[in-house]
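Exercise: predict the fold of this chain.
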Amino acid sequence: MDGIKEEINNILEGAIRKAIEIGELQISEVPTIPFSPTKTPEHGDLATPVALGLAKQAKLPPKQIAETIKKHVDLDEHPIIRNIEIAGPGFLNVYLSNDWLFDTLQAIYELEENYGTCNKGMGERIQIEFVSANPTGPLNIVSGRAAAVGDTLVNLFNAVGYDAIREYYVNDAGGQVEKLGESIDIRYRQALGEEKLEIPEGGYQGDYVQEFAEAIVDENGDDHLKLSQDERIAYFRDIGIEYLLGQQKVSLERFRVCFDVWSSEKAIRESGKPDEIIEMFREKKYLYEADGATWFRMTDFGDDKDCVVIRTNGEYTYFVPDAAYHRDKYDRGFHKVIDLFGPDHQGHVFRLKNFVKALGLEDDWLEVDIIQQVNLVDSDGTRLDMSKRSGQFFTLDSLIDELADAVGEQFAVDVARYFFLMRANNTHLDFNVELAITQANENPVFYIQYAHARCCSIFQQAKEQQIKLRSLDDIDLEYLTEPSEHELIRKLAEYPSIVLSSAEGREAHRIPHYLHELSGLFHPFYNQHRVLDTDNMDRTQARLILIQSVQTVLANGLRLIGISVPESM
């Protein structure tokens, strides 16, 4: 479709130039010609308000300008255009010939699973960091949304020619994991009978901590009491991180998200790179001492206050390893880095970008996008509060388990991923569990999968009736005359540009929306028109090619968003 728009643009631009040359339009230069799809096929395939935009400069009514442009388009010279009509105050509605529709089917037939891909990225390396939850508990549904979005964005970038990878940054150092060790220690001692013990402020109250501590007692008894408290907490911290991170990896794999790289904050700290970052900032005069701490001149970069990078006890704040980690990303040769943060990290974005700028990297090298909050809505429409520290939170595994009880494991992941992708990243998402488990037309993911399954059933019926699909060269596509058939092909033609714009705009939600729209065109066609007709084999063959194209695009799109492609339902 983008190629078609470019060709039509050139034709209309040529018509405007002709009008300028003979003095019919008094304008200094040819403007950019905007296009938009028409609301219905009856109004053409493309519409442009270019005549309205020229009215002031040309000092002529828009309709007169539109008539002039239309007059200078030779339809015999440009067979791609079937007709041009003037609508409303001066819109040009362009009707394309059927050839471009049939070219779309030809492209899908030849490219198959590669239809929708391109080489726009030219192999540029992109790293997308997402989820990166603290290894202090199970993944919650906010992490599930980040996982679905990040995984889909990597698929989109790779589809359009970039070399994109998935990366998870494990926050296995600092105060959060120390609190985990302390919380496990309390539960361990409680399991051994000690009383009057409380989880420290900021610690972790979840049942998973108690269950883990009880498992340690079952396996080792009171052996760990022989250690000093500091040694015991450090040990519980390390094995707690190892266990919980392992659980997170299992949850993500279940959710069909497999990271290419797992980076460790602890490893970054131990590599000496934070020390190098501090030395670099000192040389650039970004640091100063005050109140026993070392401060970074964040106000030099437009912030309203400076920030501490080395505490009074000599420990780095999290800004330093974060800056070192991003320098490490750059050193690994990524042309661009995209971080997907949760809503509670909004305030960190500006400072992180300033640290990256202080490292001497380009402003647009790092991009940070916020994945907004997910609100779980129960069957009564009530929002459920979630907090990892209080223990009142709904895990990603719990959600999949609940969905699996209703629709099975495979479809549970499909439903969860689809619902997480339904809204733009920067909008809050209410996850309606009752709708999610409803296997009917009101559940959008089943609606799409059922469209694919119907396509498969048509070919199964054709096989049973011994109807074999001919080569495309032996099929007359002129038998596709129904408006609904042309509407389907127009929607299929949009797919490559949807994939590209979704990647470039970081808008993963556009793919499920497109697939739902395509399915919304297919289902009525399926219900209203007979595909297999032994009395009209020429039309049957043409319609089979159309059905095969719909099947291909649905499958390609579902795979992009990590959803299964069932052949029957």
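Check your answer against the key: The chain has 19 helices and 15 strands.
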